[in-house]
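Assemble and predict.
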Amino acid sequence: MEYYSKQISRLISELSTLPGIGAKSAQRLAFHILNMPTEEVQNLAGAMVDARQNVHYCKHCFSLTDDEVCPICSNPNRNKKVIMVVESTRDLAAYEKTGKYEGVYHVLHGAISPLQGIGPTDIKLKELMQRLQEDVDEVIIATNSSLEGETTAMYISKLIKPTGIKVSRIASGVPVGGDLEYIDEVTLLRALEGRTEL
Amino acid sequence: MEYYSKQISRLISELSTLPGIGAKSAQRLAFHILNMPTEEVQNLAGAMVDARQNVHYCKHCFSLTDDEVCPICSNPNRNKKVIMVVESTRDLAAYEKTGKYEGVYHVLHGAISPLQGIGPTDIKLKELMQRLQEDVDEVIIATNSSLEGETTAMYISKLIKPTGIKVSRIASGVPVGGDLEYIDEVTLLRALEGRTEL
């Protein structure tokens, strides 16, 4: 793209590395940024760098947060005896949007996937088992209903069963192959209400 | 979005101000950024700020560039006597992709639009007229074939005619590969009016 000067080309190529941003969108975004007030560009750039540098895992549930303990784990009104296991912080956010779940979470940061070489030690499973040594009534497994999510759910339920803690799986009101992040609140609630013991 | 910590919420809301980025995409981008290596995030953020701070108008053609004179105006092989007038630097890039145009450009940064309150003095028209005091053979008007683009083309041609410089307008008609069946009546009429003898 020699018809753009160096810095515009660099901006376009940096933007096109983002997911879902192709060459055309990157070009469109780049020219939008070039026309934004300098201060707004600095805010946007600053938000990226700050978030990346300061956000880390909550020491209890491993969701992404910039506090030592995330807002959910530090909320005294949440029931610490019920833990919902999700694959990602985005899935956690999807359940939080329902506004009805009062327990806490555990974010695995992935799912077991032999094809992609992701095993039980590559996700936050050991950390989940450690949490179960405290007083826990129920573990609700809310991994995606994909092959990897189901495999992970089965694996976790087999690990937890011997401890005597109740293990449940959200109902398959979630469409097979669906991604929690994109599912409407009503379906998510149905799935929660219809959870079955494993 | 209180279930995200402050910096994640800030990043998502900053990203969602970009064109074509809705709430879901902003969330997806934010989590992608949080999982990128810190160095890459800094590169991306740096590219934005650098481009915004250093990119300005080429002093000849008003395209966006980080040099004093853009790569096209400073290229000795380009014919400075032929000027193509476009609405935006993106339109310039579209013509550059053809690789066949050997003249230079003039970027208006907009089009005359009484409805949006954009008049002749709000675009780089005075600057175009100043360039015509030098040795220019032809002005090719390549504004969009929208109402605003056509109005602007008419206005410019009336301004330039008295100077004796040749003024032309890019043809409008059926796009190459286009199916007549799906093309609007106005375009079909234009194509008929602009027919050339074989």
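Chain A has a mean pLDDT of 87.
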